[in-house]
Amino acid sequence: QAAVTQQPPEMSAKVRETGDIVRITCSGLSSSYPYAGWFQQKVPGSGPVTVIYNNNQRPSGIPSRFSGSKSGSTATLTITGVQAEDEAVYYCGGEDSSSGSWVGDKETCG
């Protein structure tokens, strides 16, 4: 089973200032997990919203301040000019190319 972890483990107050650039990295995505996705959950218990899929693709309706990248086993979610409404739990996931299953982790922003 893949061990997927995110950094930083905690967001500092400075990072959460409106307008700052927030970067969350997700490591441990082996070659078996070629595609990374990022998911936003604003309300506990609600379904997460996809903000990035296929490493760097943004669904319709997701603001352009959200961007994604992947290099080797590490994926990065960048929020350029973070807004108050971006306060949420963010999940990263890697898709298993053979089974279609996902592994992931989460990070709180806000």
Care to describe what's here?
This protein is mainly beta and 110 residues long. The protein has a single domain, classed as Immunoglobulin-like (Sandwich), CATH 2.60.40.10. It contains no helices and 8 strands. The protein has strands at 5-7, 21-27, 35-41, 49-52, 66-71, 74-80, 88-95, 102-109. It has a 4-stranded antiparallel sheet, with no helix packed on it. Strands 4-3-7-8 form a 4-stranded antiparallel sheet, with no helix packed on it. A hairpin with a 6-residue loop joins β7 and β8. It is globular, with a radius of gyration of 13 Å. Residues 9-14 have low confidence and may be disordered. InterPro entries: Ig-like_dom, Ig-like_dom_sf, Ig-like_fold, Ig_sub, Ig_V-set, IgV_Light_Chain. Residues 9-92 form the Ig-like domain. It holds the Pfam family V-set. This is LV1 protein.
**Which strand order spans the largest sheet, edge to edge or round the barrel?**
1-2-6-5
* Structural class based on helices, strands and sheet pairing: mainly beta
Task: Say which CATH homologous superfamily is assigned.
Answer: Immunoglobulins
Count of folded domains: 1
User: Which range does the strand content fall in?
Assistant: over 45%
User: In terms of per-residue confidence, which ranges show pLDDT below 50 for 5 or more consecutive residues?
Assistant: 9-14
Q: Briefly, what is this?
A:
By secondary structure, this protein is mainly β. It has one domain: Immunoglobulins (Immunoglobulin-like), CATH 2.60.40.
